[in-house]
Every structure is written in C-alpha cells, then in structure tokens.
Amino acid sequence: MTGQGQRHPDMPAVDRAAASRAAVEARRARAAVKQAVRAGERSALSVAETAWRDAESVEAGMRVRDLLATLKGLGPTRTLAALESLGIAEVKRLGGLGHRQRQALRSWLRSREAVAGHGRLVVLAGPTAVGKGTVSAFIRENFPEVLLSVSATTRTPRPGEIDGVHYYFLDDERFDAMVAADEFLEWAVVHNQSRYGTPRPPVAAALAEGRSVLLEIDLDGARQVRRAMPEAVLVFLLPPTWEELVRRLVGRGTESAEEQARRLRTATVELAAQDEFDVLVVNDDVERAAREVVDLLAVPRA
Ligand SMILES: Nc1nc2c(ncn2[C@@H]2O[C@H](COP(=O)(O)OP(=O)(O)O)[C@@H](O)[C@H]2O)c(=O)[nH]1
Ligand SMILES: Nc1ncnc2c1ncn2[C@@H]1O[C@H](COP(=O)(O)OP(=O)(O)O)[C@@H](O)[C@H]1O
User: Fold this and answer.
1) To test ligand 1's pocket by mutation, which of 135, 196, 213, 260 has the most ligand atoms within 8 angstroms of CB?
2) Where does the Guanylate kinase-like domain lie (predicted)?
C-alpha cells in the first residue's frame, strides 16, 4: 500500500511548507465549490461531471460525502445512508470513484435534481383586473411547492387582508428603511398612490434551495426584475377581450367609477407593453391560465 498523502521521512522542510500551503489552497477551493452548490449557482451533478472529466480538478479532490452534505434535506445521517446505498465508502473522493460508482452516483443525483426541480423565478404582470390575483391564488392553493412572494406595501389593508399573508403592511418610514437597506428586489409606486416592493431575502433563499418563485407585480416592477435577474421569465396575463377586462373591473366592484376610469387608462398603456414579455397567457379560464404559468415554473406534476 502506498498510502496517499503520506510524506516521505526524508522530504525537506521547505517542501513540506509548500505542500501544506497547497493543501490549504485546495481546501479553500473545495469550500468555494461547496458554497456554489449550496447557493444554487452550480448543481451537484455538474461538480461530479467536472471531477470525472478532469482528474486534476478541484472537484476531483472533493469527498463524495462533502458534496452530498451540501444538498438540501440531506443531514449527516441521510448522507451516510445514501453513500451506503450507492456502495461508496465515506472517505472516497469524487475522482477516486470506479466506473460503477460513478454511474450509480450520476443517476442518483439526476433523479434528485429532477424531483427537486430547478428553482425558477417567474414574474406575473398584466393590466388591472385581468385576474392576476385570482390566478396567483389558484397557484397558492394548488401548487404549494411554489413560493408566492409576499410583497410589502404602504397601502392600508382592506377588510379581510392579513398582514404577512396578503401583504406586509408598512408605514412610509419602514418602507423607506427597507429601500435604504437595499432589501427590495424591486419596488414601485403603483396606481400613482402607494408603494409596493418585493422583499429580496425570501426570494433569494427559495431560489437557492431550488424552489420556484412567483412574483405578482406591476409593469414597472417587472422591468426592474428583468434588469436585476435576466434569467427570470416574464409572463403577461391578457384578458380574452377588452370588453371582458372592463367587465371584470366593474364586476369586482372594489373601485369607484373615477378610479376605474383611471385604471383603464393605465391598462391601455400596460397592454401596449406586452411585447416586452417572454410569454403571453390569456386568462379566459383561471385553472388553464394557472397551469400555463406553473409549467413555466418547471414544477414537477404531482
Ligand atoms: N412593483 C410591484 N408591484 C406590486 C407588488 N405587489 C403588488 N403589486 C401590484 O400592485 C397593484 C395593486 O395591487 P393591490 O393593491 O393588491 O390591488 P389590485 O389592483 O386589486 O390588485 C397590482 O397591479 C399588483 O400587481 C410588488 O411587490 N411590486
Ligand atoms: N378567468 C376568469 N374568468 C372570469 N372572471 C375572472 C377570471 N379571472 C379573474 N376573474 C375575475 O375578475 C376580477 C378581477 O380579478 P383580480 O384577480 O382581482 O384581478 P387583478 O389582480 O389582476 O387586478 C375578479 O372579480 C375575478 O373574480
């Protein structure tokens, strides 16, 4: 047995120092890879594939155990159980796996990623009363794996609205503080009245975990998200006809006639911006429209 990493007793001290520096460097590089996996910037599978393509890579020097430990929901006990089921010893490094073990780990990681899905950010926008809230509510009820971001707003709660569920209702001072602390992914003044914003931390955390996130925000906010996160998918919800849009706004009965007229003027401007969006979804039927949006979120069907 040659015993990897064992030093020859005659090895000069200077080389030992260099070797230990290199070891520290390698540890640091491996920690950076683990961090990237945890943050959702790299998939565990891509780390493994890199290790198997290049035996000299940082990835090849990673222990399989450490790679698995970066995965969500895999504590130490489950990691050990997974290693056992794959027939991989706890001390094994990615680069040291045999052909069968590679195959086993590859398909295990693949099926895990398929189940976990890749967290996607989808923005749902559209003119007033097109049914954004209705479609979002359908998704909240039927697809709990999607995080529906809860916005902060300075508008006053309507009867039945719960702080922290429908919105975080903030006063101007608190909203200002969040803006100053850069805690919003985007924010905008909506309907010329109140400010609305998407708190950044829950969105970032969900995406890092591989969960998909849906934002229901206005046009201005959608444009900001496009700039901040170009990988986001922008969806514009369309009414079947203009007449139907008017019918829904009036039928909802939550705005005065004057406010309705103002919103319809804004709606004309918003409809003209539909070409800026990646996907157009017609909300003729709530369930169908919601499913179209969910498909974009790449959520595996139950
Ligand atoms: N930019 C931005 N717009 C938001 C946010 N949350 C809600 N909105 C938009 O604010 C508008 C008003 O929402 P709301 O006060 O619930 O009244 P609604 O007109 O009945 O939907 C809607 O167009 C929402 O899409 C947010 O976090 N950011
Ligand atoms: N597909 C649909 N068919 C018929 N009515 C709808 C549909 N979607 C929404 N509505 C109705 O239209 C009105 C406006 O919907 P809402 O979700 O409040 O719009 P938004 O959030 O876009 O302002 C509500 O009364 C809602 O019940």
Assistant:
1) 196
2) 119-298
What residue ranges of the chain have pLDDT lower than 50?
1-3, 117, 300-302
Residues 263 and 129: beta-carbon distance below 8 Å: yes
Cβ atoms of 21 and 12 within 8 Å: the answer is no
Pairing of strands 184-190, 152-153: unpaired
Sign (positive/negative) of CA torsion 244, 249, 253, 258? Answer: negative
Q: Are 196 and 221 in contact (CB under 8 A)?
A: yes
CA separation for the pair 141, 170 (Å, rounded):
26
pLDDT digit string (tens) for 243-301?
Answer: 999 999 999 988 899 999 999 999 999 999 999 999 999 999 999 999 999 988 875 44
Q: Which ligand 1 atom is the nearest neighbour of the CA of 151?
A: 27
Domains within the chain, CATH numbers bracketed? 13-116 (1.10.8.50), 121-151+205-296 (3.40.50.300)
State which ligand 1 atom lies nearest to the alpha carbon of 224: 1
In this predicted model, what pLDDT tens digit does every residue of 103-119 receive, in sequence order? 999 888 876 765 554 67
Q: Is 129 left (phi over 0), alpha (psi -120 to 50) or beta?
A: left
pTM: 0.68
Say what the ipTM of the complex is.
0.96
Sign of dihedral through CA atoms 138, 142, 143, 149?
A: positive
Is residue 47 within 8 A of residue 54, CB to CB? The reply is: no
